[in-house]
Amino acid sequence: MNGPTQPRASRRYTIALVWLAAFAVFALTAYPTITWWDSSSHSLAAATLGVTPPPGSLLLTLIGWVVTRIPTGLAPAHALNLLAGALAATTVGLVLAIGLRLLRRPGDGADMEPGCAPVALAAGAASGVLAFAFSPTLWQYAVQFTPYVLTSVVTGLILWTMLRWWDCATDQHSWRWLLLLGLLFGLDYSVHRTNALLLPGVLLWISIRQPRALRTTRTWIAGAVGLAAGASVQLLIIPLAAAHPLLDIGNPSTWSRFYDYESLAQFGGGFLVQFYPRHAALWSVQAMDFIRAFGANFLWLSGPWGILGILPTLLGLTGWFALWRRDRRLAIAFGALLALHAVVTVLYFNIPANFFRPFDRHYLPVFVTFAVLVCCGAGEVAIRLLELSRRARWQVARWATALLVLVPLSQLTRSWRAENGSHRTFAADFATNLLNGLPARAMLFTWGDNDTWPLMYMQAVAHVRSDVQIVNLSLTNTPWYLDELKRGDPSFPLSRGWAPPKGAQPWTDTTVVIPVAGTAFQLGLADTVAVPRSITVDVAPTIAAKYVLPQDLVLLQILETNGWRRPLCFSSTGPVPGLPGLTPYARLDGIFWRVMPVAHPSVDRAALRRALFSTYAYGGYADAGTPLDEIARRLGFNYYTALAALLRAEQAAGQADQCRSDRDSMLRALPPARLQLDAKMSQEIEAACTGPEAVRP
Asked: Are residues 518 and 638 located together in one domain of the fold?
């Protein structure tokens, strides 16, 4: 090849090789199954063509559903996690393509030199973009199926389209690129909406390049038509919900429910747009959280690589100066775009102090924009190194080249252990353990995301314990959820026509009598225990000593209507059974509480021991080479709580040897140091088998 074809082919080969390198790393470190938070709910939605929690991600669900239908021989969740890796690698390829396009712009002539210059430029840019590929935030979501890598792909496509419009802004057909830009923003509405925060930057971008474009009707029509066309895809969620899939959050099957779903009415409504008042200090909390996340990806000084952590930021600054030398107006526009994007992101998310979950995933689109500059900076450095070598300054060139190569290598080695999910099955194991330990036909009450979605995935996709009815107590505060429960199971124990009131209700202490029906065996009692005719439950206000929530009334209705036909169990991840009045009737049978028809029921040692040592699996907890995430660590405490109950019962029964054996066996499977067990629980477990005086009644 000759002429301009050769550089174009070289760029394509470089992009393809970088894509393959990034995907190979992501595939090797992908989770083999679901993990916590969005991974389990979105994997469930993709496998069953369901509706995810708002704001949802319809496009991701549809793409994932297609992937799960491809006969790969992989478990559905594993295939979806590999899809996430492919999407993340596509983001990396887009960043490289944008960076190379920016570096081809006319400047001081360095980029126009013949010979090895195109190869050096491409190799340098590839080094820079791989540093971004192996940064913690992108890598974290490249190995699990969530909307965030698809969001980053859309970010890359938006930046690419903006640059293409920039190059032909004065042409009469430039509106076509604005049409495409509007389409991408519209489609992003069915991904995760985060890229909407780029819109102010896009308007600034247009005003810097061609201010008159904002005064023409064609510009606004093109953008509006594209936006409407892309956003209309979200309407597909209405027939999807109308089909009543297994996962149907909000049931947006009618126009009113669709609006509630889109506006996030369940979480307060208003599309969650609240710039003021601030939920925390703007600078010291919110801006610093963004800076912390930025530093973790591009500016870090800890670890064995030390000072190398500053290089990604230095390359980003170098990339901006490279743009300045080539096209000052473009450099100003890109810098303003990046700064405005970061500011709007911090202002929009308005995060509270000490929020229970990091927001790094929402900063990812800003990191994609900065990664373009890192890519440009690395390419520019490579060109300068080539010039140094031509001037026989070999020593300087070699050291600088080594540093350039070490940038992605340092990111790779620094993040590998933390982001490697290839042996992490904590979420699937916990869900399987909880389900398999339950009595037949149990109704299990859960509390949040991590004790609900993994269970529903394992039940629906991995076919674990389909006889169990999972009820998220928090969601019972919403009418649509109760409708879904009753539609899925007509025998669901709620009185016909009964519906809980909306919002908290005034309440005074009330004693409720629940008749008991069934034999001791059916009720999970020992044969020697006399079955009472009824139990009394003291229902007190649960909010400010004055009110009860709808979920409290729902639970009370279920207690009265169920008639002991199904065992009622509560995940130990939440408070001791739902209503305080049920606490005396709760028996810990593993990592769940079972409601019994007698007060202060004795521990069923055989059942508890069987659950802990035969039913439950603890994969990864004892393996120091497997990273232990915070959620897995905290949920692991539930096993210790069950162990402590078993040890107390064994010691009280005079089974000291069995007590010590069980304690030692469990501590090998769940090393306290790995789970950072608190001193109180450590002392309780260590002392449980030393003598009756150490045992609590």
From this structure: no
